[in-house]
Automatic annotation (TrEMBL):
PANTHER family: BLR4337 PROTEIN, GLUCANS BIOSYNTHESIS PROTEIN C. The keyword Acyltransferase applies. Residues 19-365 form the Acyltransferase domain. It comes from the Bacteria. This is Acyltransferase family protein. GO terms for molecular function: acyltransferase activity, transferring groups other than amino-acyl groups. Keywords: Acyltransferase, Membrane, Transferase, Transmembrane, Transmembrane helix. It holds the Pfam family Acyl_transf_3. The chain crosses the membrane at residues 21-43, 55-79, 100-120, 153-171, 191-210, 225-242, 254-271, 286-304, 316-340, 346-367.
Length: 393
C-alpha cells in the first residue's frame, strides 16, 4: 500500500515540471563552460594554463554564487516528485541510494583516481596510473602536495545523498511545512525573510570554521545548500507558494543584480588568492547568499512561466545531465593536461578542452544507454522515470 508523506499538506502542483528539467540542463551547460574557463581564470584550479586572464573574473564571479545553489534547489524539487511516486519513505531512500551512492562509489574508484593522478603528475610524480591506483591513491594524507582522500567534483553527489537522508528523516517524523508556507507567502516575505537566517548563520560561521568541502567540515556550505534543497522540496508540494515565487520575481532580479555587482567588485579588487579585509569579506559572503537565494527565485519563476513545455530533446538531455556531471570534470582535467603543453592559442585550447569534455560525456551517455550495468554505474535513470504524465495545473 502507498504511504503518503505527511510533511506537505497540499497535493503537488505538477506531475513533471518541464521547466525544472530545462533549469537542470542549463545549469549543467553553465557548469561545464565554467569549469573549462577555470583553466584560464586567475583562481586556483586543478590544471592551470601558463597565462590567466582577469577579463574572465566578472562573468565567472557573477555565476559563482548561484550555480550550485540552483542545482540543490532543483534537486529538492525533484526529490519531492520522486517521493510522491515511491511506495513510502523506505522505497524512496532505496531508489535514491541506488541513483546516488552507486555512481558515487563508481566515481571514487574509477574517475577520481584519474584526476588525482594528473594532479600529482603535474607536481612531479613519475608513477604510472595503474601503479598510482594500486599503491598511492588509497592513502590518507598528502602526496606531492595533494591531499588524500578527495571527493573532487563528486562532493556534490555526496552532499545530495546526505541531504536526502536528512530530508527523509524529517518527512518520517510527520512534520508539516504548512506553517512555514503560510509565513512566507504574504507580500515579499519569500524574498527577504529567509535571507535573515541564511546570512546570519553564514556570517556567524565565517571566521569560526574553515570554508572547505567535507561532510563533517563544510558547515557554512550545509547552512546554505540544505535550506535551498528543502525549499525546492516544499515548493513542489505547495501550489500557493508558486504564486509567491512569481510575486517576488521582479524584486528578486533586482536583488540578484545588486548582489552580483558586489561580488564582482570584491573579486575584481581582490583577485585570485588575495584576501580582503574581514569587513569586505563579510559583505561579500552576505552578497553571495542574497544572490544565490534571489537568483533561485527569479529562475524558478522564469522556468515556470516560460520553460514548462516539452521538446523532443528534453527527455534525452534531462536523462544525460547526471552522467555528464559525473564524467565531465575528469574529462576536463585530462583534456587540459593533454592540450595545454601543445602551445595552442588560448581560445583554441579552451574550445578543444570543452569539445573533448562534451565528447566524453556524449560517448559515456550513449554507452550507458546501451549497456545496462554501465548505465547504473553512471547514474542513468530508467527511461520510464522520464516519461510520466504531467498533472494539469
Amino acid at each position: 500500500m502507498r504511504h503518503e508523506p505527511r510533511i506537505i499538506a497540499a497535493a503537488p502542483a505538477h506531475g513533471r515540471h518541464f521547466g525544472m528539467d530545462w533549469l537542470r540542463i542549463a545549469a549543467f551547460a553553465v557548469l561545464i563552460v565554467y569549469h573549462a574557463a577555470m583553466v584560464f581564470a586567475p583562481w586556483d584550479w586543478l590544471v592551470k594554463a601558463p597565462r590567466t586572464y582577469p577579463a574572465l573574473i566578472p562573468p565567472m564571479a557573477f555565476v559563482t554564487p548561484w550555480r550550485l545553489a540552483l542545482l540543490f534547489a532543483v534537486s529538492g524539487y525533484a526529490s519531492r516528485i520522486l517521493l510522491d511516486r515511491s511506495a513510502g519513505i523506505a522505497a524512496f531512500l532505496r531508489s535514491r541510494a541506488h541513483r546516488l551512492l552507486v555512481p558515487l562509489a563508481f566515481g571514487m574508484v574509477t574517475l577520481v583516481p584519474l584526476e588525482m593522478w594528473v594532479r600529482v603528475r603535474l607536481n612531479g610524480y613519475s608513477g604510472t596510473l595503474p601503479h598510482f591506483w594500486m599503491q598511492d591513491y588509497w592513502r590518507w594524507g598528502e602526496l606531492m602536495g595533494v591531499g588524500f582522500p578527495s571527493w573532487e567534483h563528486l562532493w556534490f553527489v555526496a552532499y545530495l545523498a546526505a541531504y536526502t537522508g536528512v530530508l527523509a528523516g524529517i518527512v518520517a517524523t510527520g512534520r508539516r511545512a504548512d506553517r512555514i508556507v503560510a509565513l512566507l507567502s504574504p507580500s515579499l516575505r519569500l524574498l527577504w525573510l529567509p535571507l535573515v537566517p541564511l546570512i546570519g548563520i553564514k556570517l556567524a560561521l565565517l571566521f569560526v570554521v574553515p570554508e572547505q568541502q567535507g561532510l563533517l567540515t563544510d558547515w557554512a556550505g550545509h547552512a546554505e545548500y540544505f535550506p535551498l534543497l528543502v525549499f525546492g522540496f516544499v515548493l513542489a508540494g505547495h501550489r500557493a507558494l508558486w504564486a509567491s515565487v512569481h510575486r517576488v520575481a521582479p524584486e528578486a532580479r533586482v536583488f540578484a543584480l545588486a548582489a552580483g555587482l558586489i561580488v564582482v567588485s570584491v573579486e575584481w579588487n581582490f583577485p585570485a588568492e588575495a584576501m580582503p579585509p574581514h569587513g569586505v569579506m563579510a559583505i561579500d559572503r552576505a552578497a553571495r547568499i542574497v544572490m544565490a537565494w534571489s537568483m533561485t527565485l527569479a529562475l524558478f519563476a522564469f522556468a515556470d512561466r516560460h520553460l514548462d513545455r516539452d521538446h523532443r530533446w528534453r527527455g534525452t538531455l534531462a536523462r544525460a545531465v547526471f552522467p555528464a556531471y559525473l564524467l565531465h570534470h575528469t574529462a576536463l582535467v585530462v583534456a587540459a593536461w593533454w592540450f595545454l603543453p601543445l602551445g595552442l592559442h588560448p581560445l583554441i585550447a579552451f574550445l578543444a578542452i570543452l569539445a573533448a569534455s562534451i565528447g566524453i560525456c556524449v560517448l559515456g551517455y550513449l554507452a550507458g544507454s546501451r549497456i545496462g550495468w554501465l548505465g547504473t554505474l553512471i547514474g542513468l535513470p530508467p527511461i520510464k522515470q522520464l516519461s510520466g504524465a504531467r498533472a494539469s495545473r
